[in-house]
């Protein structure tokens, strides 16, 4: 059996943020376990795949779309937003402008992805450069709350919180599925499922209300 066929769910995740904040480096660290001191700037969109096991015998294929941060590629990258189940909103902790632009990235996706609302995680990258920090943790946490996202600080260089950031987002998408907030449909590629409808995870109505992300 081909490795790519061994999954129960497929989640499409889009990487968002200004150029040079470290999106490609973070993905490379997570997917391949390596850190590249220098990478070529993404042109349009690059793709990565990683597999995780959410529960025993429940395998999820994560399909990442790594978008270019430069304005000249925005018309290309916007076309990928509508099929995103999750979004990594990333800024550089040493670059205040990249932090201030997060709301713009978030709004672009929210305006495009309808009726589904992606699950977001806000990531402050380059935490290893503490002496050069321009954005405080509490300020970033406040922004995350306003965007209905969770916040985490990472370093692609030291690998600090890299796996935790993607686990946080994957779990958020999975919980949105379990609660019924997000559902796989033939018309939407954000989430694909190989599970028969009768085997889809179900939760009591009371728990659905308690876990609602809306």
How are helices and strands ordered from N to C?
A: EHEEHEHHEHEHEH
Structural class: alpha/beta
Q: Helix proportion of residues, in percent?
A: 25-40%
Based on Cα principal axes, name the global outline.
globular
Kindly, what is the distance between the CA atoms of the first and last residues, rounded to a whole number of angstroms?
39 Å
List low-pLDDT spans. 69-73, 208-214
- Biggest pleated-sheet summary: 7 strands, mixed
> Which whole number gives the mean pLDDT?
84
Number of helices: 7
The tally of strands reads 7
Percent range for β-strand residues: 15-25%
Taking all Cα atoms into account, the compactness measure Rg is 17 Å
Fold blueprint:
Blueprint: E1 9-16, H1 23-32, E2 45-55, E3 58-67, H2 74-78, E4 86-92, H3 96-100, H4 102-112, E5 119-125, H5 137-146, E6 150-153, H6 162-179, E7 191-193, H7 205-211
Parallel strand pairs: 1-3, 1-4, 4-5, 5-6
Antiparallel strand pairs: 1-7, 2-3
What does the model show?
It comes from Python bivittatus (Burmese python). GO terms for molecular function: GTP binding; GTPase activity. InterPro entries: P-loop_NTPase (IPR027417), Rab_GTPases_membrane_traffic (IPR050209), Small_GTP-bd (IPR005225), Small_GTPase (IPR001806). The protein is of the alpha/beta class. Strands 1, 2, 3, 4, 5, 6 and 7 form a seven-stranded mixed sheet that branches. It is globular and about 50 Å long. It has helices at about 25-30, 75-80, 95-100, 100-110, 135-145, 160-180, 205-210; strands at about 10-15, 45-55, 60-65, 85-90, 120-125, 150-155, 190-195. The longest helix has 18 residues, at about 160-180.
């Amino acid at each position: 059996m081909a490795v790519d066929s061994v999954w129960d769910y497929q989640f499409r995740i889009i990487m968002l943020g200004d150029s040079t904040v470290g999106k490609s480096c973070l993905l490379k660290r997570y997917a391949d376990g390596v850190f590249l001191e220098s990478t070529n700037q993404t042109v349009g969109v690059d793709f990565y795949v990683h597999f995780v096991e959410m529960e025993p015998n429940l395998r999820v294929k994560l399909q990442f779309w790594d978008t270019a941060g430069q304005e000249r590629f925005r018309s290309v990258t916007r076309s990928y937003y509508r099929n995103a189940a999750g979004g990594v909103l990333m800024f550089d902790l040493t670059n205040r402008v990249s932090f201030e632009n997060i709301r713009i990235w978030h709004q672009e996706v929210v305006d495009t992805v309808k009726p589904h609302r992606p699950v977001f995680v806000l990531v402050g990258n380059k935490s290893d450069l503490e002496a050069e920090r321009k954005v405080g943790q509490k300020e970033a946490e406040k922004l995350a709350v306003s965007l209905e996202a969770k916040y985490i600080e990472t370093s692609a260089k030291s690998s600090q919180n890299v796996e935790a950031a993607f686990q946080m987002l994957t779990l958020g998408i999975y919980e949105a599925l379990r609660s019924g907030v997000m559902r796989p449909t033939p018309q939407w590629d954000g989430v694909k499922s190989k599970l028969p409808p009768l085997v889809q995870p179900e939760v009591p109505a009371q728990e659905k209300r308690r876990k609602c992300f809306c």
